[in-house]
Design goal:
By secondary structure, this protein is α+β, with helices and mostly antiparallel strands. The chain has helices spanning 7-19, 61-81, 93-117; strands at 22-27, 42-47, 50-56. The protein is 50% helix and 16% strand. Bound molecules: zinc ion (ZN).
């Protein structure tokens, strides 16, 4: 399993928590199953008062970061617009806008850090 405290994934997790407070859980594949019974790389779960992002623990670092951002974009979108009936299934325009915004934001931050450390 990849480390979630160090490296770029560690950065991504700390950065995600600045966007919104989410609980992050790395789970085995059999525990990440969506509404239609498919196994997937990540899943957003709504609890009372907080949201939980589940990420498959066997992913490589790049995929884990992509999955984190994908689910975080759902969480931000849902916080803004509320839960639609089929929200799990929806990769709506508003989700896409959040996803692209945070994706760019994160990689720009990483780029700045790399420049700074040279
Ligand atoms: Zn999705």
């Amino acid at each position: 399993m990849i480390s979630c405290r160090t490296g770029v994934l560690g950065e991504a997790i700390r950065w995600a928590r600045r966007y919104m407070p989410v609980k992050l859980v790395f789970r085995a594949k059999s525990r990440i199953i969506d509404n239609e019974g498919d196994e997937c790389n990540g899943l957003l779960v709504q609890h009372k008062g907080y949201m939980e992002i589940n990420i498959l623990k066997d992913l490589d670092e790049g995929k884990a970061i992509d999955t984190l951002m994908h689910e975080l974009a759902h969480a931000i979108d849902i916080r803004r617009r509320g839960w639609g009936k089929d929200h799990y299934k929806q990769h709506s325009d508003s989700w896409g806008q959040e996803y692209s915004r945070i994706y760019r934001d994160f990689w720009e931050m990483i780029g700045q850090k790399k420049k700074g450390s040279k």
